[in-house]
């Protein structure tokens, strides 16, 4: 029994969902997203709520039940509010800047790192040490943030590197004499 799947997804004002041909299309003020619906679950729209139910008691149907409901909820939130991940850069001389469709990262390597910004994602650098990644697809926003963080993950001794703003770095004690 899925604890997540039992609850309905509430549709806020200005968000519509269309179920046709095994594809759910969610449209809102920020854009539209599509999700292929598994043959193991049934999706119904009832007023301003979306219900997901499994078609059988198989393990695959129970797994798809909660996952489909969570994905639909993320799509509804994405097209109505959007998602944002913020990264912080720590280290002497480390900085970031947006140049056209690329994010230029100066991370202490011999050459600057140029990261191409994917379609549907907005990257802003308010300060040279913060990067704000915004988009309507939660998966793509998280993936872009993880790829940027992967260029220079934070190290435990001085805390230098790129980290999420909510992340805490466990610091280690250095050498002793």
TrEMBL record:
The UniProt record lists the keyword Cytoplasm: no
InterPro entries given in the database record: Ribosomal_uL6-like, Ribosomal_uL6-like_a/b-dom_sf, Ribosomal_uL6_a/b-dom, Ribosomal_uL6_bac-type, Ribosomal_uL6_CS
A Pfam family of this chain: Ribosomal_L6
GO cellular component, one term: cytosolic large ribosomal subunit
GO molecular function: rRNA binding; structural constituent of ribosome
PROSITE patterns documented for this protein: RIBOSOMAL_L6_1
Domain Large ribosomal subunit protein uL6 alpha-beta: 12-82, 91-164
Any GO BP: cytoplasmic translation
Key words of the record: Ribonucleoprotein, Ribosomal protein, RNA-binding, rRNA-binding
Keyword Transport assigned: no
SUPFAM superfamilies to which the protein is assigned, alphabetical: Ribosomal protein L6
Family: Belongs to the universal ribosomal protein uL6 family.
Known role: This protein binds to the 23S rRNA, and is important in its secondary structure. It is located near the subunit interface in the base of the L7/L12 stalk, and near the tRNA binding site of the peptidyltransferase center.
Quaternary state and interactors: Part of the 50S ribosomal subunit.
PANTHER family, alphabetized: 60S/50S RIBOSOMAL PROTEIN L6/L9, LARGE RIBOSOMAL SUBUNIT PROTEIN UL6M
HAMAP family: Ribosomal_uL6_B
Designated name of the protein: Large ribosomal subunit protein uL6
